[in-house]
User: Fold this.
Amino acid sequence: MSALDRLRAQESVRDRELLPLRYARMASSPWAYLRGAAAVMAADLGVRKHSGLTAQMCGDAHILNFGLWASPERQLLFDARDFDETLPGPFEWDLKRLTTSIFVLAETEGIARSTAEDAAVAAVDGYRTAMRRYARSGELEIWYDRFTADMPLEHLTSAFAKEAKHTIDKQAAKRSQEGTARQLITVVDGRRRISDDPLKRRHFQLSDEEEISVYEQIFDTYLASIPPHLARLVGRFTRIDTVQQVVGVGSVGMRVYLHLMEGDSRRQSVFFQVKQATSSVYEEFLGPSAYDNHGERVVVGQRLMQSASDIFLGYVRVDENDYYVRQFRDMKIIPSGREIAGYLPQFASACGVALAKSHARSGEPEAIAGYIGKGEAFAAGILDFARAYADQTSTDHADLVTAIAAGDVEAAERGW
Assistant:
């Protein structure tokens, strides 16, 4: 099956109105293409020999799927952050996607190839060094290990670190629940509403009765998926408004809803995001998930890989579609390629360390460290793959652009 056929095979589970937007975004650069083509890379990995050493894979461990978010204690932590494709699988598949993404991002952002090489080496070295440490650690040491916002900045010059820290603090405040409310809430006829944006959000066409019925299905099944003490907290919030969202690149067309909730105190607003979950792109090659609900697959994978996760993580099934539930934003800081360009090797090293921690929580760190070994053969193999697959990504991206130009694929930068 060609790369383009792999992409088109995913159309059946997505909102057809948004498919032209998905392809337009993927066609914008090889980097955007890589982000949207996890299914293509999964197929290419699935036909290759692998280590046989299983860990909980992120499944989409590209370099910008690592970032910051607030722990339940309100501390900014650094870790993997996207788990739509999570599944137990060969540990090195995540590392291959991470290193490939470094080369593709560098090409798209005009970063020197030598810097990309340094960053890819740093990612593998960071992973290898951390996994050796975890191989000598006790179970609780691994489980309790966590990385604060300072970790990606450790090896920067003081001036650069200070500037980056200022940016992080500014973005964290902007992406808090209060900051999000200031950006997204408007007042219409005396009612607080989420603002519409044709490329990001829309109010869907349901009667008030239908909207309430759908939400009640979500609310009831979601409460059953979270611990009873949190159900009490969630029960103190009432839904004020709901919109449908467009998010990301790879997720464009998936059904995503944003709920504005207000606490009984009238002093606290919270945004809950409900995002569709389908089968992981790796299930075709590794076997089906152990969980009947793909929202549960995502939630379990996230909790297993992250040092601390959103307290509101849960899952639902509505009209035969699976979803997972989380807070929207909540101080989540997602870096851009431009923001990390000046310290790409340092950031890549931090990503490698964080990925090793996640794999050590679910896999066998001694076995993984032993497989990697003390020599350079493992690193050389990962880097050779990454260079070659980055070139393949550019070719596949060009094929998509050609198909769009020929009218075989519809692409348009439009929303609903």
The chain has two domains: 3-176+335-405, 184-327. The two ends are 30 Å apart (CA to CA). Confidence is low (pLDDT under 50) at residues 156-161.
